[in-house]
Amino acid sequence: MTDTDTRLTELETKVTELTNLVNQLQGQIILLPDVVRYGKLQQLLQEGDIRSADEETTKIILEVAGKQRDNLTPDDVAKYPCNSLSVIDALWKKYSEEKFGFSIQLKTYYQVGGNIDTLRTQDTKILVEFADSVGWLNEKKQARFEEYDSWNFSLSAPDGCFPAHWWKSPYGLKMVTFFFSRLISCNLA
Fold first, then answer.
1. Which range, of 26-35, 65-74, 140-149, averages the lowest pLDDT?
2. How far apart are CA 167 and CA 58, in angstroms?
3. Contact status, residue 153 vs residue 50, Cβ threshold 8 Å
4. Using CB atoms within 10 A of its CB, is residue 127 exposed (0-12), middle (13-18) or buried (19+)?
5. Going by C-beta distance under 8 Å and a sequence separation of 6 or more, which residues neighbour residue 160?
């Protein structure tokens, strides 16, 4: 191989490396709006402010969906962007030592006997077992969302307890089943 051939090979290698770097940087530039969108959630979770992070999660979900809380429908949830769910889930898992996050909630749903068929039939018994497992029910097996101010906002809360604030919906069980179905279709299991 001549010096020219060697030099040409080196230049081709450098061009390939630079092309890869440009592609990587372009991908990161595309994510800049996401840094702004999820930065506050990340900061709250880093600080251990679970309650505020829970409320910020609801804010992000509604912002991404372009909806208000009362008009976010199960159909909206069925089309919710997987990338947003993945980012939210990853942040919750990272800063909670794998205790909280949507995938942890879905795992808990599976552990109490839930599956795609129980979602299709909206199996109330399984959904109640799930809600009880993650600490969302009181001693009378009623939803505790009205008692939200008195919840345990720490890492000692039950696995899968958070994010929880956003789950309160006027659509009730239908919203839960559509959301779990979306988590499954987004491969968050």
1. 26-35
2. 8
3. yes
4. buried
5. 99, 100, 101, 104, 105, 107, 108, 133, 134
Mean pLDDT, range 143-153, rounded to an integer = 87
Number of Cβ within 10 Å of residue 103's Cβ equals: 21
Which of the 8 DSSP states describes residue 157? S
- Tokens representing 94 are 């990272």
| Nearest-angstrom CA–CA distance, 146 and 168 | 10
Asked if 186 contacts 82 with a C-beta cutoff of 8 angstroms, the reply is yes
What is the DSSP code (8-state) at residue 146?
Answer: G
Which amino acid appears at position 165 of this protein? H
- The CA distance from 82 to 162, in Å, is 18
